[in-house]
Design goal:
Blueprint lengths: L3 E5 L4 H10 L4 E6 L6 H4 L8 E5 L12 E4 L6 H6 L1 H22 L2 E7 L26 H21 L3 E6 L2 E2 L10 H10 L4 E4 L5 E3 L1 E2 H13 L8 E3 L4 E3 H11 L6 E4 L14 H6 L8 H16 L1
Parallel strand pairs: 1-2, 1-4, 2-3, 4-5, 5-6, 6-11, 7-10, 8-13
Antiparallel strand pairs: 9-12
The structure holds nicotinamide-adenine-dinucleotide.
Nicotinamide-adenine-dinucleotide binds next to helix 1, helix 4 and strand 5.
Length: 311
């Protein structure tokens, strides 16, 4: 076994995929309070000798010996973070502070799952790492957006003050198997609706764009970045830069499933980003960026997961 790796949020969607990949060669300690994560996601690991699950809230301190920390614990979908806004902000501030201190104690690398949401409703496209963003600090999305911005600030202040070994990943929309069917993300919502022939709800006119990355491709990029020996001086955008409108993706999902669902439109959400596309020049300069799954294939695989697990 190569390393002892601590993953927070390891029972969630991305955390589960990260645990699976890292368990191939490492010992993994998964920390999660199961707020949005699910025991079902990690069932296949629980008897592995190199896997430990600890039910714990990262807002509270904890000590483990480890060689690398992937800090992924945070509610991530609007319905969850808006239901628990104060907890979301504190998880990102206190949880990140606790994990940075743990990284210092272990003299190990700390990798933060930040988000494209730190760009808010961007005034430029594609979004490059040196863009400061356009975030409403008191709006309904602020608990998450500002929470992640504060988490990034903490990481870079720990680097400046304490020489912490940090890597900050700005993850763009990712989808795939093991998303929870009811956590309100656009692709899972549309797939669930199309499979039950119920209307697909689009907030606004559907011209808003997103760039979706299939989960295996995202995890591949994250693993490659985690292996880079040098400390990276800026955050890094991670995702896929194939941009598509919400209406277009709704139509594709309806067609793929031969669904009788219709598209309906409701009022736009407050502060919802109108465009979202990563500038991936920095990522491509650092790793051999090689996304293998195009949108249609990824949607087919994700739909199969939803059919097998939720019908
Ligand atoms: P998720 O909700 O499936 O997973 C988050 C996990 O964190 C859950 O298992 C949850 O129980 C756990 N958690 C939440 N608060 C906690 C706390 N206080 N203590 C311990 N555990 C806690 O979401 P995800 O999509 O897997 O996101 C994982 C990380 O990646 C998050 O930090 C999110 O902000 C970031 N991210 C995800 C995406 C995406 O498209 N999935 C995009 C950008 C950033």
């Amino acid at each position: 076994m190569n390393k002892r790796i601590l993953i927070t949020g390891g029972a969630g969607f991305l955390g589960r995929h990260l645990c699976k990949k890292l368990l191939e060669n490492n010992k993994v300690i998964c920390i999660d309070n199961l707020l949005t994560g699910r025991k079902k996601n990690i069932k296949e690991f629980t008897n592995l000798p190199n896997y430990t699950f600890v039910k714990h809230d990262v807002k509270n301190k904890i000590t483990f010996k480890c060689d690398q920390i992937f800090h992924f614990a945070s509610p991530a979908s609007p319905i969850h973070y808006q239901k628990n806004p104060i907890d979301t902000l504190l998880t990102n501030v206190l949880g990140t502070h606790n994990m940075l201190n743990l990284a210092l104690k272990n003299d190990c690398e700390f990798i933060l799952a930040s988000t494209s949401e730190i760009y808010g409703d961007p005034n430029i496209s594609p979004q490059k790492e040196d863009y400061y963003g356009n975030v409403n600090p008191i709006g309904p999305r602020a608990c998450y957006d500002e929470g992640k911005r504060a988490a990034e600030t903490l990481a870079f202040d720990f680097k400046r003050k304490h020489n912490a070994k940090i890597k900050v990943l700005r993850i763009f929309n990712t989808y795939g198997p093991y998303m929870a069917k009811d956590d309100g993300r656009v692709i899972s919502n549309f797939i669930v609706n199309s499979l039950s022939n119920t209307d697909l709800n689009i907030y606004g006119d559907g011209k808003n764009t997103r760039s979706f990355c299939y989960v295996d491709d995202l995890i591949d990029s994250i693993i490659k970045i985690s292996k880079i020996k040098k400390i990276l001086p800026t955050p890094i955008n991670v995702g896929n830069d194939y941009e598509i409108s919400i209406k277009e993706i709704a139509k594709i999902i309806i067609d793929l499933n031969n669904s009788k669902s219709k598209i309906k439109h409701t009022k736009s959400l407050i502060n919802e980003p109108k465009i979202r596309k990563p500038d991936l020049k920095l990522l491509k300069s650092l790793i051999n960026f090689n996304p293998k799954t195009n949108l249609v294939d990824g949607l087919i695989k994700t739909t199969r997961y939803f059919k097998d697990n939720y019908n």
